Amino acid sequence: xxxxxxxxxxxxxxxxxxxxxxxxxxAKHKGRNLEQHKLTRALAAMCIAxxxxxxxxxxAEYVTDGAGDDGIDAIAYSSITKTAYIVQSKYKEQVPSxxxxxxFTRGIEHLLSDNYKFMNNKLKRRQExxxxxxxxxxxxxxxxxxxxPDSPSEEALNISTQFTNDINNSGDVLEFRYMKxxxxxxxxxxxxxxxxxxxVLQLEKWLTPGNFNKEIMGIVSGNQIAELYxxxxxxxxxxxxxxxxxNSETNNLILDTIRNSPADFWSYNNGIxxxxxxxxxxxxxxxxxxxxxxxxxxxxxxxGAQTSGALGRAMIEGVPLDDIxxxxxxxxxxxxxxxxxxxxxxxxxxxNTIGVKEFVALDPNxxxxxxxxxxxxxxxxxxxxxxxxxxxxxxxxxxEDATRALACLSGIEDATRTKSKISQMWSNIEGERYKRxxxxxxxxxxxxxxxxxxxxxxxxxxxxxxxxxxxxxxVLQEGTYVCCTxxxxxxxxxxxxxxxKHQDIEGWLHDKAxxxxxxxxxxxxxxxxINGSGYAGSFFKNSDKVSSLADTLRQTVLHRS
Length: 561
Fold this sequence. Notes:
By secondary structure, this protein is of the alpha/beta class. The chain is 48% helix and 14% strand.
């Protein structure tokens, strides 16, 4: 017999999630059996919706439950918070057994090792996407949800605890949670969209180009936007063409301003645009007269997701937001043309924006290197939007490859940092990191030859990764930067990059193919010794761990060759 809580959860799953669940692979089942499949998948979707703060229809797309799912019923990624969510759901009023927990941990381990050998087509089709998202994640949350109010057995808890400790051997990356009946019941309405919700915003300063019931522009406190995000999450962006914003580096830069320069936030920030069905105010407001509270219905942030997400993250982290203010435009869709809201979303998201990379163009040395290389018949593209005729040049490369190559030339620390997040090397052209890679004294031939070395190395190294599979392939892929750095280091014992010919680099690397293979093999072997049960993705982002590994490879491979 269902408890009242289970009945209410059942109603929520049936009304809001099951209509969006794909059941084509189990359509042959009938009656209670088919219903169980639907509810299990709906519960997994609801868990994703709750944690990732996305609407039910979107959450349903991330369900992977089915034969051969390897214990993985759903997996999703939020690029705003850089968090991956992996879910196992059991629509039954029983605690998970040790065997069920062990199966879930084994499936997670296979995902982290890029081992899809025993997984179903739902997961295999998403392999590239999942692998990339897991590598980019700062945090991975594994959730086992079930309909019992009780905690799992001590044996089951020990399995998940030991697994978590093993994965986090090189740094905290995985969090294992059990979502019990009371938590599911309490959160059952959180992931709904804002269609039926009323939002109240207090504008400190405001004006209107016409009717305040149609459009308003003003200033709101950062706390208000942060509270909206922490309450509704990504559902705030339901009408946004991008929904979950992929450019997480921008969010990090916004967070840096919030933490370190709150007084400058308003000056640096573009603000946000909100669509609302209706805009209402209890009083008769007078533009510019001071603070006024406005009631908004059916709210969606169509531009400014990064700002909203960063403020939400700051509030969660406990960062004070008292001195943060945001410019906001609120536009009503009531009694507008049918496509009005779509057009607002479209046009506010298609205007040119300035990314971190573009600020490199402010360094006058970049133009000098560009012009010098151009005179030598080499195209160096450091500005976004450049569209020269590449056929006019003997060779071409961009800022990304230059940064990767020069980072490997600089050493293990910069190579590791660049692998982890290349854009942080460009975030401050006056900073130490950028200056180490792009000093004023940088010889253009050093830059060019470093790029040739990087590309030629990758041609050889990629053959080793493509011929590998599973965990070995994952480790070799993650170890590309350290192996290239050490190979470049070996080359530098006898050669100066600015003095060597392109052909000599390619010839040397060809002759050293066996050495590169030895480095790759030793990289895998020593990773297994140091971090065999841990996650390779986090290991190769850890400068201390990678430096220790590099020292071992120097002793065991480079100094013996």
